[in-house]
Amino acid sequence: MRNNNQRKGQRAARSFPRISVWRVVGCLAVLLPALSGANARADRNVLAPRGLVASPGLLRLEYLIRESDSRSSLGWATFGLPVEDLGLDVELERFDLNRRARETVSLQYTLTGNAFSDIAPAVSVGVRDSLNRGREGRAFFLSMTKTFGLSLAQDRILRDLKAHAGYGTRRLGGLWIGVQGKFRPGFTVHAEYLAHRLNASVSWPVSGPLEMRAYSLDGNLFYGASLVFIK
Question: Which of 58, 72, 131, 184 could form a disulfide bond with 80, CB atoms 3.0-4.6 angstroms apart?
């Protein structure tokens, strides 16, 4: 009798879904739109690094679910270390894809700062997957971002236009290029060619620091949300 009860208990335990910490973060991103903050992009364009880094004191949470499999997910938490002149951001990543779940840490350091990318490219260096246990494997990179001025005609359509380029080792695949544009209605489009693959994303503000997001990553569709806090 005891063995039967134990087996029933084990089956019942297995029947409960496994709850990911990142799923909780994703729910918070949907439920907390009224929190104070500012909309700010961290160090990724889509997946490729940008030349810009997270501002000091910034915390950005992002959570995505694959459209074809709701059990597959990607999540990032990016911190701009709260030291004004340090110029370092830390990114925590967790993924649960193809029945493989891992966490890792990436670092990015600015060589130029973010302030004058409209005059000269912002340049940063860093390491992806420093623990060498993520999707990309440990890779080093140099990335650049240039902000472009807009003509009067362009300004009627766009609020902001940036181009990105860089070079990375291993699975970052050598040279990459990317572009991002923020349009007058408020949504932002990102596109890039990274590691011989095309990636794209679109984001649109919902309320305050909350944005909804949709991604195409190597032909796979993901959707989710991001939430930004600034100290």
Answer: 58
pTM: 0.79
Tell me the CATH number at 212: 2.40.160.40
For residue 57, is it left (φ>0), alpha (ψ between -120 and 50) or beta? left
Total domains in the chain come to: 1
Q: In this structure, are residues 80 and 53 in contact, taking their beta carbons and an 8 Å threshold?
A: yes
User: What stretches of the chain adopt beta strand conformation (E)?
Assistant: 58-66, 69-80, 88-97, 100-110, 122-128, 139-147, 158-168, 174-183, 188-194, 197-207, 210-217, 220-230
Q: Would you say residue 175 lies in a domain? A: yes
Contact yes or no for 92/77 (Cβ under 8 A): yes
From the number of C-beta atoms within 10 Å of its C-beta (0-12, 13-18, 19+), residue 19 rates as: exposed
Residue 1 lies in a domain: no
* Token couple for 146: 């240039």
pLDDT tens-digit readout, 110-121: 999 998 999 999
Alpha carbon distance 96, 171 (integer Å): 19
Q: Sorting pLDDT into bands at 50, 70 and 90, what band is 10?
A: very low
Q: Tell me phi and psi for residue 16, to 5 degrees.
A: -75, 140
Question: Given this model, what pLDDT does residue 41 score?
Answer: 52
17 part of a folded domain: no
Q: Which two tokens stand for residue 78?
A: 């990016």
CB 227 within 8 A of CB 32: yes
d(CA 78, CA 227): 11
Residue 147 clears pLDDT 60, i.e. is over it: yes
